[in-house]
Specification:
Helices cover 15% and strands 31% of the residues. It has 297 residues and is α+β, with helices and mostly antiparallel strands. The longest helix has 11 residues. The structure holds manganese (II) ion (MN).
Length: 297
């Protein structure tokens, strides 16, 4: 993010949160601590808004970051604990079975479908994950229900940048603030998705938020996930059944999307069990990669 770049809607930032709620800009293997940019946020009074204040005020925050960067302290990324780059989303939306090959594998394996009818996304629509499930890459996954199968799901995640109601596909990308890697961790079993996918830390978001100007087309990104060095999932977002614009059109026809709403777009084939002690490496083109440790809750 240089001083010569346009500042109206173009941020070119990799924004992270780390340690005790500090804010950083990622530059290669380092970050620059720009926590003081939070001082531009308005002081809210109860009732609090149903949105994430940093995303809602991203233009002002970015302008402040620009002035802070020349003197901002530099830290190696390896020395910090990365938190979810969005702290206070109003909701976490998720798309089920949004890659055809994943739909095929779920329908073909009783350990995955548990006699639940698996509809296509056109019939199933969307579901919600609890906001309390959000955690950053550095916080790791705390597995529950260890007697059951717990699976990893890598997903492209986008974050809503401005209030969206009944938005058409054609203008949908204007409503995206940025992108991150999501891990939609899942307890297999008969219950509703919203329960099985909402345990604390079962919505990993990271490693940082890449502002949307860096990713003009979210429909062409390679994504991959490995467990303990073994590749389990590898695909491309061009295989999404409903891409980012169609997901925004669908969701905003049912409810209002607020700045900071987090949207998991669905996982490709290759989901598989994870156990305490495992280490997950997840990567998405143009965003980066993250290592996430798995432990027992
Ligand atoms: Mn999923």
């Amino acid at each position: 993010m240089g001083p010569g770049l346009p500042d109206k809607g173009f941020y070119y930032m990799r924004l992270c949160r780390f340690d005790n709620g500090r804010v950083g800009i990622v530059e290669g293997d380092n970050l620059r601590d720009v926590t003081a940019a939070l001082d531009v946020l308005p002081v809210y009074r109860y009732p609090l808004p149903s949105c994430d204040p940093v995303i809602q005020n991203l233009a002002a925050v970015a302008a402040s970051i620009r002035t802070l960067l020349p003197a901002a302290p530099t830290l190696p990324l390896s020395a910090v604990t990365l938190l979810s780059p969005v702290a206070n989303p109003g909701k976490v939306i998720a798309a089920p079975v949004n890659y055809q090959k994943h739909l095929d594998e779920v329908r073909g394996d009783k350990d995955l479908h548990h006699q639940n009818p698996i509809n296509t996304i056109h019939k199933a629509g969307l579901f919600l994950k609890a906001t309390s499930a959000l955690a950053g890459a550095g916080e790791g996954i705390a597995l529950r229900k260890l007697e059951r199968r717990n699976d990893h799901e890598i997903e492209l995640v986008f974050v809503i940048g401005k209030t969206a109601r009944n938005v058409s596909k054609d203008e949908a990308l204007d409503y995206v603030a940025g992108y991150a890697i999501g891990l939609d961790i899942t307890i297999r079993g008969p219950e509703e998705r919203s329960l099985r996918k909402s345990a604390d830390s079962y919505a990993i978001l990271g490693p940082w938020l890449v502002t949307a100007d860096e990713i003009p087309d979210p429909g062409v990104l390679e994504l991959s996930l490995s467990v303990n060095g073994e590749t389990r999932q590898q695909s491309n977002t061009r295989n999404l059944i409903l891409g980012v614009p169609a997901l925004i059109e669908l969701a905003s026809s049912f409810y209002t999307l607020h700045p900071g709403d987090v949207f998991f777009t669905g996982t490709p084939e290759g989901v598989s069990p994870i156990e305490p002690g495992d280490s997950i490496h997840a990567a998405i083109e143009s965003i980066g990669s993250m290592d996430v440790k798995v432990r027992a809750a």
